[in-house]
Specification:
With about 450 residues, the protein is α+β, with helices and mostly antiparallel strands. About 25% of the residues lie in helices and about 25% in strands. It has helices spanning about 1-40, 85-100, 125-130, 150-160, 175-190, 190-205, 255-265, 270-280, 340-350; strands at about 45-50, 55-65, 70, 80, 210, 225-230, 230-235, 250, 280-285, 290, 295-300, 305-315, 315-325, 330-335, 375-380, 385-390, 395-400, 405-410, 415, 420-430, 435-440, 445-450. Residues about 15-20 have low confidence and may be disordered.
């Protein structure tokens, strides 16, 4: 009997040794890949967390949290959330729904004073799902250096014409989430950031999560950067009031996000029915659905369910990818605008779950004149046009208000980007002329009509 016990013990030791060796090999591959991507994309600093079955199996920082002070990035480095913060806004709304203080199908005029007539049919649900028709604000509509009161910002938004009738289409709107912050304040009786601290951050032990405040002394806070003609520059100034809005103005670490991730598998914070609603694709007026819920994108990777969201703001880019059926999550926070952490998150996930490893896209050479038929402007959303051009033998695409990026052919009609995980296919009509483009990014699919 002792001999059998010894054999089992030896077998277990060998098994644990093999598992440790596998984990070490995975970690080395991840480190090598992340460092390579950071160098290629000129990302100063990056923090990563991999969570499996509720356990943080890797949490690490790479590069510099602050270039000028030569501060190393770690798992405890604090980054701005960008639109990853929207999932916390939607959670706050659902907590208030559970408390009976908000109804998803209430008209927003119930919570906001002085709303315009064109908003009369817009509901809380429309704001959560980006189907309200309210224009997404940009620097043309809002002065990023000006401080606004709540009332002033609502008044600015109220002057925007609707891009479409509520529920008719899907179009990403940061403006809608700003309004949700004010709705939370009205329903909860307190600033949405205070409500999050009380109901989400403190109960989950997210000790460094909070609303942005550049005036406060905050240990481990990273500096944000951007690239200007290939040279790293500091982030641009944004007024304090615009850095406290509910469209994505939080400070977070990857360890905070790991705790949040774990709570989403339980009912510690929200009822399962509430979480299910957050992860249900929105149904449009015509009956079609769009792969977006309440602050979350909904898709799949090789038939593995994927719930995710990215963010970008003031020199920071962020991403969380949750392969929910596999209980695998990857969180990537960077301190570079256009750092494109979603690509990194997907690839890292593939080291731990090979079935979801993104396919390596290979560019082929096509006759440049073939591309001339595709040159023009494509209406991605009511507020976003993608301009496609050819520069010699290079093919370029430029979204409204953003820099030009090169696109690469994988066939004579299909192209892909390397700066983000996006693909486009040009479609011709019966007369042989291009009618539209099918654009795919991070699980979302948009048909863009050629308008010029």
């Amino acid at each position: 009997m002792y001999r059998n016990y010894r054999r089992v013990l030896i077998a277990l030791v060998l098994l644990y040794a093999a598992m440790a060796a596998t984990a070490s090999a995975q970690a080395e591959k991840v480190d090598e890949y992340v460092k390579s991507e950071m160098q290629k994309r000129k990302i100063p600093g990056l923090s990563l967390a991999v969570v499996k079955n509720g356990e943080v199996i890797k949490a690490q920082g790479y590069g510099l949290a602050n270039i000028e002070l030569n501060v190393t990035a770690t798992a405890e480095t604090i980054y701005q959330s960008g639109s990853v913060g929207k999932q916390f806004t939607s959670a706050a709304v659902m907590l208030l729904v559970e408390e009976g203080k908000i109804n998803l199908d209430d008209k927003i005029g119930k919570y906001l004073d002085g709303t315009p007539e064109i908003w009369k049919e817009i509901t809380v649900r429309h704001l959560l799902t980006h189907t309200s028709g309210i224009k997404n604000y940009g620097e043309k509509e809002i002065n990023y250096r000006q401080d606004y009161t709540d009332e002033e910002l609502i008044k600015v938004a109220a002057n925007f014409p609707l891009d479409f009738q509520p529920g008719e289409k899907w179009s990403y709107s940061n403006t809608g989430y700003i309004l949700l912050g004010y709705i939370i304040k009205k329903a909860a009786g307190k600033f949405y950031g205070d409500y999050l601290k009380e109901r989400v951050f403190t109960p989950l032990g997210m000790t460094t999560a909070r609303v942005i405040n550049e005036e406060d002394i905050i240990p481990n806070r990273a500096a944000g950067y951007r690239l200007v003609k290939g040279e790293i520059k500091n982030q641009r100034y944004v007024s304090p009031s615009l850095n406290t809005t509910a469209d994505g103005s939080l400070y977070l670490t990857v360890l905070d996000m790991a705790k949040w991730d774990g709570a989403l598998y339980s009912e510690k914070l929200l009822k399962r029915s509430s979480i299910d609603q957050m992860w249900t694709p929105v149904k449009l007026n015509g009956g079609k659905t769009h792969p977006y819920g309440f602050g979350w994108g909904i898709g799949e990777a090789n038939k593995h369910k994927l719930i995710e969201h990215g963010g970008a703001w003031q020199g920071f880019t962020t991403h969380i990818s949750r392969y929910v059926d596999d209980k695998l999550s990857v969180i990537v926070l960077t301190n570079l605008a256009n750092g494109n952490p979603g690509i990194i998150a997907h690839k890292v996930a593939g080291f731990y779950l090979p079935e979801v490893m993104p396919a390596e896209r290979k560019a082929i050479k096509i006759e440049p004149t073939i591309f001339d038929a595709y040159v023009g402007e494509y209406q991605l959303t009511p507020a976003l046009v993608l301009t496609v051009t050819r520069e010699g033998d290079k093919f370029m695409a430029q979204p409204t208000g953003q820099p030009k990026v090169e696109i690469f052919a994988e066939s004579e009609t299909k192209f892909f980007l390397t700066v983000v995980n996006a693909q486009m296919e040009f479609v011709k009509g019966a007369d042989g002329k291009v009618t539209h483009m099918v654009f795919q990014q991070e699980g979302a699919v948009l048909e863009a009509k050629k308008i010029k």
